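Bug report (template v2)

What were you trying to do?
Predict the complex of my protein with glutamic acid.

What happened?
Run completed; filing so the output is reviewed.

Input:
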Amino acid sequence: MNIPAQPGSTLYDSDVFRMACRQFDLAADLIALPADLRERTKLPKRCLTVTVPVKHDDGTVRVYEGYRVQHHLSLGPTKGGIRFHPSVNIGEVAALAMWMSWKCALAGLPYGGAKGGVAVDPGKLSRRELEGLSRRYMQEMIPFVGPNIDVPAPDMGTNEQVMAWMMDTYSIQVGNSVPAVVTGKPIAVGGSEGRREATGRGVAHLVRRQLEAMGIDPRESTVVIQGFGNVGAEAALAFREYGMRIVAISDVSGGFHNPRGLDLDAALAHVSAKRSLAGWNGGDAVTNEELLELPCTVLVPAALERVITPANASKLRCRVLAEAANGPTTNEADLILEARGDVEIIPDILCNTGGVVVSYFEWVQDLQSLFWTRDEVLAKLAVILDRTRESVEKQRRKIRCTRRLAALTLGIGRVAEAKAARGLFP
Ligand code: GLU
């Protein structure tokens, strides 16, 4: 299915942006969103493209392209991660910014969506080069970000250390410490307890709720996880706490499968020593494509978007598809899964919302300079996750649609409602 981009969006045209637009159109149709609100709710408000020169250890200077897209400004500052990955482009960043908007609105957070990125393989950079890239990207973004403007966070390929360098760069420029300019920072510089594990734990919490609703005992359940970065690894640890068996994991180098269960501690130790799962011997080697088709109770794509496609949607052998990644399922694959009717999808904007919810807590704590304990953070997170999940289930029953469309209609509806209430200026 080739879905044309709408007029005005040629800048962002790409498979993933068209996919996000298609989701929007389906949801907007379902709630009969008025024509005068559609395009302005859908299309990103503004973006900044920068070149980021980095001096490499061998003395050469290389220039990387970086982006930041702010999707809408109607509910507060914009919020969303910064991705360092070779496949980053402006269309992908725009789609990810749209999803951040619906995700934040769905969870009731006072933010618009944003996303940033640099097309680079951070695994090929030395620590000094990574620091140079992170600082220069933030330096270029200074007029575009700020605690009341746009608040970045980690995403694929970035982490707490990158956020600390960015916070430091911004603070030096302003002349005082501004911890609220980014979230996902180390606790030493104003990060929040519980932020590192929030996305993965949130995924596991919502999976447990889904299994409860299906009458499935977690201790009888198996899990397959694609992606063993921060989100995949933290989710795996939380699943293990619930007594679930992790039977396969993977990263960009490939995956490992053992139906009797994998030794997570050994996998984590290998990754921390070698930076990837390559060379681990904890199970039978599988490719990332094979991994998605392994039999399991819960399949967790926790890496890139668009991995569940028409080529594999009919071959998934899971009961629950928990979308820890943003946009892992194409529009066409969605239709196949809907027709199958035997896979319960926890859609991305619900499933991985734990990360941005605790980012919101971090921002609030930074602004008021009053910090909460880990137990307080995790308890508040669980309340928001359960409330958000219940709102999606209620919407699903009310308008009789998939869980994805229920979540999208709530998120999109709230953004549109805010725009309608504020009116159109001038
Ligand atoms: N990058 C994460 C996401 O896609 C977190 C964003 C944030 O915490 O602001 O949801």
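What did the reviewer find?
Residues 374-399 form the longest helix (26 residues). Residues 196-346 form a domain with the Rossmann fold fold (CATH 3.40.50.720).
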